[in-house]
């Protein structure tokens, strides 16, 4: 049970219901999975940011942080006890002030952009080495260790003069010739892609914007060592709240899927792949790629990735980039690259 579950359970600040449970993050063990089935805890998945809510209302689906128990008429993320962003949450009100509350990034003025409230700066800074990647992690002290994927990715990508050799090899394996000539333009660690239905974005380990003879390409890289892909779709429970229903429907729409065959697959693979498509649309890219960059000597998680690939009627292999169809005139590909384990130390 999370720390939130040890404190007094608050009332929902949106509808006033007492049907409130704590939100737990990460891969659920048997005990936590059973608690979720009993309705005692909400599984938040493996997308972790510094703005993650701590409470979930089972009555209306509202999620919020720090146990706020009074109506948030002018309560904002960024106010004491709520979090560290300047985005408002007056969209949670039944009767919000006309035109918004006046705060910067008020969602009533930005409603057309969706209801995810990740603040993205357009100012980027170059890194001077692997250690610069640590600051972008949700839990730097916990995740920045030798032997972990964040460490391995940072050292591997910083050592490469462009794309790591195994990534270039993966792209060259594609049946799409344009991807044999990818020139990386920028690579951004811990890249957030906003999704509707809640405040938590999909945090992609590395985002690469590249150029090919045909145009731009967006690449989302998911690093792994021995970490799992998080909960199954059925354990994430997409029907458990209006927000999750909205997010799940959106992901299926982006990927051109229906619900059939999805429940036993890993939820993370859906929103990571959708992230590549979403950013491809933003950058008018001809190709979108989601790839797993694994440093595991046992290829941990490959069976989950393989099962996900089968949803698109393709057979996955290590070191193979697979074309899985077009989405809004963007060619979509997925792949698995095996990284050099020297970067684990």
* Oligomeric state of the chains in view: single chain
% residues in beta strands: 15-25%
Q: Report on the biggest sheet.
A: 6 strands, mixed
How many DSSP E strands? Answer: 10
Mean pLDDT: 82
Low-confidence spans: 1-5, 67-118
> Main sheet: which strands, in order across?
5-6-7-8-10-9
Please give the alpha-carbon distance between the first and last residues: 33 Å
Q: Helix count, per DSSP? A: 8
Classify the helix fraction into a percent range: 10-25%
Order of helices and strands: EHEEEHHHEEEHHHEHEE
If you compute it from the alpha carbons, what radius of gyration comes out, rounded to the nearest whole angstrom? 20 Å
Structure notes:
The protein has helices spanning 30-37, 140-143, 149-159, 165-172, 233-236, 242-255, 267-282, 302-310, and strands at 20-24, 42-43, 55-57, 63-64, 183-193, 202-212, 215-224, 287-294, 321-327, 330-338. By secondary structure, it is an alpha/beta fold. A hairpin with a 2-residue loop joins β9 (321-327) and β10 (330-338). The protein has a domain at 130-344. It is 21% helix and 20% strand. α6 packs across α7. It has eight helices and ten strands. Mean pLDDT is 82; it is low at 1-5 and 67-118. The radius of gyration is 20 Å and the shape is globular. The strands form two sheets. The protein has a six-stranded mixed beta sheet, with helices on both faces. A four-stranded mixed beta sheet has the order 2-1-3-4, covered by helices on one side.
Give a short overview:
With 345 residues, the protein is α/β, with parallel strands linked by helices. Helix content is 21%, strand content 20%.
């Amino acid at each position: 049970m999370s720390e939130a579950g040890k404190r007094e359970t608050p009332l929902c600040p949106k509808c006033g219901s007492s049907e409130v449970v704590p939100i737990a993050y990460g891969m659920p063990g048997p005990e936590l999975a059973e608690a979720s089935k009993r309705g005692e805890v909400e599984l938040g998945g493996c997308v972790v940011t510094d703005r993650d809510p701590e409470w979930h209302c089972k009555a209306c689906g509202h999620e919020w942080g720090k146990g706020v128990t009074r109506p948030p008429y002018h309560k904002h993320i960024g106010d004491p006890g709520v979090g560290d962003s300047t985005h408002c949450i007056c969209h949670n009100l039944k009767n919000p002030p006309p035109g918004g509350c006046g705060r910067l990034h008020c969602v009533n003025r930005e409603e057309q952009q969706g209801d995810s409230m990740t603040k993205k700066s357009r100012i980027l800074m170059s890194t001077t080495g692997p250690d610069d990647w640590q600051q972008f992690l949700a839990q730097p002290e916990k995740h920045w260790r030798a032997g972990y994927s964040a460490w391995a990715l940072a050292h591997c990508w910083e050592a490469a003069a462009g794309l790591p050799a195994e990534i270039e090899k993966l792209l060259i394996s594609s049946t799409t010739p344009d991807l044999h000539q990818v020139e990386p333009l920028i690579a951004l660690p811990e890249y957030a892609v906003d999704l509707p239905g809640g405040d938590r974005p999909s945090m992609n380990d590395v985002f690469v914007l590249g150029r090919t003879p045909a145009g731009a390409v967006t690449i989302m890289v998911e690093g792994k060592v021995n970490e799992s892909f998080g909960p199954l779709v059925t354990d994430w429970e997409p029907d458990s709240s209006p927000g999750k229903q909205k997010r799940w429907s959106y992901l299926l729409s982006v990927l051109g899927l229906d619900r059939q065959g999805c429940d036993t697959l890993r939820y993370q693979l859906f929103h990571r792949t959708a992230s590549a498509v979403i950013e491809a649309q933003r950058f008018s890219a001809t190709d979108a790629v989601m790839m797993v960059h694994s440093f595991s000597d046992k290829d941990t998680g490959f069976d989950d990735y393989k099962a996900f690939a089968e949803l698109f009627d393709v057979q996955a292999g290590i070191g193979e980039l697979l074309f899985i169809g077009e989405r809004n005139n963007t060619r979509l590909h997925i792949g698995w690259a095996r990284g050099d384990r020297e970067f684990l130390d």
